[in-house]
Design brief:
2 copies of one chain form a homodimer. Chain A is of the alpha+beta class. In chain A, about 40% of the residues lie in helices and about 20% in strands. Chain A has 8 helices and 10 strands. In chain A, the strands form 3 sheets. A 4-stranded antiparallel β-sheet of chain A has the order 2-6-4-5. In chain A, helix 3 packs across helix 4 and helix 5 crosses helix 7. At the A-B interface, strand 5, helix 3 and helix 4 of A face strand 5, helix 3 and helix 4 of B. The structure holds a DNA duplex (30 and 30 nucleotides).
DNA sequence: CGGTACGTTGAGTCATATCAAACCATGTGG
DNA sequence: CCACATGGTTTGATATGACTCAACGTACCG
């Protein structure tokens, strides 16, 4: 599983570099991190709410969700992470969690000790800033989700989510915004959007009827299912999607202060 | 206004120290920050969505909200900040904003240049970690809001918000959890909770009818209006509130790695 | 700005149908 | 005795309809 660790770290480094300028010795320090690569079945809870964790989870493949749970067991997924994302990088500075992590699909996850990440951030302040910036992106997405769930109704809400995932998948080189594969059930999407599975279904039908999306499948219940977006701009308009919050095209030199 | 700067920085330092262990030279570095103290009228927009900022806003007094805006002008407030909070500390690492800031009440705000904050974080890596941890708290609150808005209906939602504000005000020494003053209109609360002002009103009546809260006022429309919580535990239970996400009582030594 | 009323609607609930993939018996032939 | 078909059952996801209810919109008063 050494190979899995290396490729996950490379994806993570690429993600950091998209928004932070890092020096060669800083790359090496990041790629030199050690971790344990684990294969997880779909639906497996990786972290239970309330647990204290001593390592962060880097996604190697598949999709991982962060969630909060109500007393009656109902869940709200508060973040979704794709390969190259460090799910709980923030747990380095706040290890006692109120949230949990769940494998939304089959996936591989690399566990990296907080100790190593904290040392990295302390010895290389620029890397520390890059980590901070990375968790800031998560927070920015979170704020956008609050706005979507709070102020849009189901149609635009689902559309916005699809726009976000289209772009994020494209940037992770896992698809194109007009054609991508989301291995999520409608129930899981409901848990993200604050809707019931039935309503996600109806809303999906609605988007299809408006010609905003299409799904290609060999038969009604066949999986995997591919989402196609015939007219990206129309979907964006319907969703009131504006990608600024994904903090792309805004590469910052963390070392500006020392120059 | 020098005095305003100093007292705001003190409150900020106290807030950081609640969750991070800092050395004496680090305190001094923080208290030595320079900033401009500004007095703002209620409802004034401090930062417009889309703007690029070169300084962070530290609240000296009053309440400041972070918001996202829809095309039709409707707003969703995604965070609320009390005195001692640095509203947009995260903008140090992500200065191009998708969000805006608004003075929810009359307030004083200290503007501190990113440049100085970034230098501080680079030269004192422990302070960098403390900043990171501070923004992580904001993100943690955000995640909880997603869960509340997504999965609770109006009653518990409002109750949860009141629990959160009660505790946060108490910790900032601006009130007690069973008796505090929230200078917010029902419309502003609606913008936080994803509800219409009318519904906030109805829901407030509901909580009152259940004896979960009471408001004391000298006359019907008199402000300020004080919120009283006759039985904290009952309110907590109704709201399904559990304060872990506020990351209190979890003071971490950022310097653990170097020890 | 807070409080109240009334008609409207978006989303939830419950029930049921459909279909594909996974599962698990048995089989049969090499 | 194993390799691999065959067929029935179970499971999990997607659909869709009928009914209910929480929240919205609008209006008006204090």
């Amino acid at each position: 599983m050494k190979e899995g660790v290396r490729s996950a770290l490379l994806a993570f480094l690429r993600r950091l570099q998209r928004r932070s300028v890092l020096a060669a010795d800083e790359w090496l320090a990041i790629l030199g991190l050690e971790g344990e690569c684990v294969r997880e079945p779909p639906r497996r809870d990786l972290v239970t709410p309330g647990q204290t964790v001593r390592h962060s989870a880097l996604v190697g493949s598949g999709l991982v969700g962060r969630f909060d749970q109500m007393r009656d067991g109902r869940r709200q997924i508060t973040a979704i992470h794709l390969p190259g994302d460090m799910c709980d990088l923030h747990s380095v500075v706040a290890p006692t969690t109120g949230w949990g992590l769940v494998a939304l699909t089959a996936c591989t996850v690399v566990h990296i000790p907080h100790e190593a990440l904290r040392r990295l951030a302390t010895e290389h302040p620029n890397v520390g800033l890059a980590f901070w910036r990375d968790t800031t992106l998560d927070a920015s997405i979170l704020a956008k989700w609050v706005a979507n769930i709070g102020r849009k109704d189901a149609g635009p809400r689902l559309a916005h989510f699809l726009c976000e995932m289209g772009l994020r998948l494209e940037r992770a080189e896992l698809g194109r915004r007009e054609r991508f594969q989301l291995q999520l059930t409608q129930e899981q999407m409901g848990d993200m959007l604050g809707l019931t599975p039935v309503h996600v279904n109806r809303t999906t039908q609605l988007l299809k009827a408006h010609g905003l999306i299409a799904t290609t499948r060999t038969s009604p219940a066949a999986r995997p299912q591919v989402t196609e977006v015939p007219d990206w701009d129309r979907l964006v308009d319907f969703a009131e999607f504006s990608p600024a919050y994904l903090l792309d095209g805004d590469v910052e030199s963390p070392g500006a202060a020392s120059g």
